[in-house]
Give the backbone structure.
Amino acid sequence: MTEISAPAETTTSTAAATTTQLRPGELGTNAARPDGVPKVQGRFAFANDLWAEGMLWGATLRSPHPYARIRSIDVTGAWKIAGVQTIVTAEDVPGQATYGLISHDQTVFATGVVRYRGEPVAAVAADHPETCRRALAAIHVDYEVLQPLTDPEEAIAGTRDPIHPDGNLIRHQRILHGDPEATGPIVVEGTYEIGMQDQAFLGPEAALAVPDDDGAGLELYIATQWLHEDRKQVAACLGMPEEKVRLVLGGVGGAFGAREDISLQVHCSLLALRTGRPVKMQYGREESFYGHVHRHPAKIWMRHHATADGEIIKIEARMVFDGGAYTSTSPAVLINGITHAQGPYRCPNAVVDGFATRTNNPPCGAMRGFGVVQACFAHEGQMDKLAAAAGVTPVEVRLRNAMRTGDPLITGQPVDSVAPVERCIRETDALPMPPDLAADADVLALPGGAGRTADRGHVVRGVGFGVSIKNLMYSEGFDDYSTARCQLNDGVVTLKFAASEVGQGFVMLAQQIARTILGVDEVMLDTIDTQIGSSGSTSASRQTWMSGGAVDAACRRVRELLFESVAERYGLEALQLAIQGTDVVDTIGSLRVPVAQASAGLQLDETVEYRHRATEDLDENGQGNCHVAFAFVAHRAVVDVDPELGLVKVVQIATAQDVGRALNPLSVAGQIEGGIAQGLGLAVMEEIIVTDGMVRNASFTDYLLPTALDAPTVVFSLVEEPDPQAPLGAKGVGEPPCISVTPAIVAAIRDATGRDIHRVPVRPQDICLA
Amino acid sequence: MTTASEPEIYRLTVNGESHDVQDAWLGESLLYVLRERLGLPGSKGACEQGECGSCTVVLDGAAVCACLVMAASATDADIITVEGLAAADGLTDVQTAFLDEGAVQCGFCTPGLIVAVHHLLENNPSPTALETREALSGNICRCTGYGRIFAAVDSVVASRAEQNTA
């Protein structure tokens, strides 16, 4: 390090410039994704694209019954098929026979009994996927079919024998807050049903397991949301120390909650260890429907008591979430549901009872919104009833009750996050309305599109509102943290973390943070794997806050070291130094030296664990500071409906979202529009149909996802009030977009038709036969 | 799969190059052969029944789902995959627009959509909003809600129109 400094006038002018404009790629800009170019070229390696020399294919045999006893499994037929290398069942699991995120109650392979249609029973490895298919068909399992438990109310009532040693009730929690006897002149109630939604990420589950030469460990390339949690569960089931199981993130084709639980991780690893060869597994779409958890179907009764002006006095609710056969995250989903029952509104009194049940239906767990989607559909239906009873508009009733920073939840926890609920509502309300449906509108623009027969003359338009509150990060005392490492070597920054990039763009955000904090342009990203501490899950809208916080803190520590080095070199105080653009500058002197020069010859290396503040468990009355922070959003839906045919076209969604601070506005827009499409799907299209425990539509032909023709126009406004608790001022933006859009669409359908609709997805018969 | 006793060879023309496919099970889809035998994993499989468009390729000028085409039936066809759109490591205007407009998140649907957009704009250089939506309605994207994808199409249409008038 030899040179210094630029003339003083340059320093001044540059300093002025840096206060007004951002360098490309910094926080606040639409920085490019580092994985963008390979993704548009088709060169990005998703987990499904991985390949290894000598690789075998793995496949899973699944139960055709929702509930059955296994009398015997005969694999001799499968062994006779040329190309089959190994066959494994429950007795071949070397370690723990079960796994699970919260409770280890789910079997790697069914042991004696199957509890849902699709439960894994055996797996094979062979030289070709078609060989695998034939081998699975040749395994004979003798089942004694049992009567499945499919009604959550039977699980609650305890009228059926336990279908699992842990019983038929996964969790029960009540909330008692304030005066349970309080009432008011307005009382409105309703029962709301939410169907089972699938995350339907595009890239099906996939992994490649490569055994170590000595057979004592392995490397697993896996599309997941949480590498370290996967490793913990996989190692336990394999009976191996965790350090022998190394996980590397395979390219992830979307997640939305469905990759938080184990799917093929243990199976694939086991097949590789048994054969001593790399094994690749990938699910097809049908198997994907069986291979991951879904959004809980729920039934919610709610009663609101209010003043004559429509101010909420008390809510009562009974909320039933069907968890299906295994626990997954049901206990946490339930707590999210009941603790968000009031919505983003002040509510002094509450009596809420919540149940997560175990049945022989498909297991349910995490999906974007995580319990709050269900609660919001109910409380927003109630708000519209309340508005009608009070004789005010849906917007007005929401404004009168809008929560403010500091208001308590029904758990007693004060909402100390920035809570711009009123602003979200007003800004949403102020966004422009779409033009009227043209008299000569193209059939593709009509409800039902070209394939249906809506008549322009029958189409009516409706408008609806929805507002929501969503907790951010993990709750109930979970030790939630993220680890990040920042190295600055000769002017080159390298970041390492284990945060799963599932499409949301954390890889881009991490680079933006480093550019901003350290004044560099080039930021290298190390492999995302388990060779560093956990970053926690890419879920709960938490990575920007948590792993963003960790990367930010690691970069700041490196910057301190850099400043100390520069200060020592030039006889200054480190506190005088700052980064401006790509330079280290003396804020009270004339020193200006490029970061690349200042760091030449230095090897700075800092690893940080970032934790959010501790949370508490709920007590028996559901009281306690169980959540960390909250984000808010409002949605307005405009729909066209043909009431006679029951067809709906969602025309426009307007939304104002509390984002804290938009760190990459284009990515925020992508989260908003994408979340809205998923909320629209739940409102009018998407449902896993389950009858007697059997999934009836496990395909993209029968499970309908929003297409380009279904996507509404989206107009939005970002409410940027940086949250002082958030490391970067930014709140997670992933979940809020998909929450209150669903009730807003349903409210708009009610507005258009005058019909009482209280379940989603809204089917044609729910409209025309209401 | 043991196929040593099936010495069939057939030939596919992909992105202007001729490829021999040897000793393959004849039941394999074009998608499987592209991905697993020809080293062209850009086409993605997400539904196996022609619903999602992730495997969209252009076959003799028509956009098709490679998962629904038997590879051995495509021997006389000219096949273009996402890997064949741009020269060498470069990007087409559509690929650049997808990046600039934020149309890429997880990226699994992206290659199929890029092929579909190229195909659309070759056949209809200035589609209406509704025509774009219809042309892309066979390509499911679960991340973006399509808004940024429409923005990317609009941007390519505008810049191509500008070039043509310049």
About this structure: Chain A touches chain B through 67 residues (CB under 8 Å). Residues 294-475+618-768 of chain A form a domain with the Aldehyde Oxidoreductase; domain 4 fold (CATH 3.30.365.10).
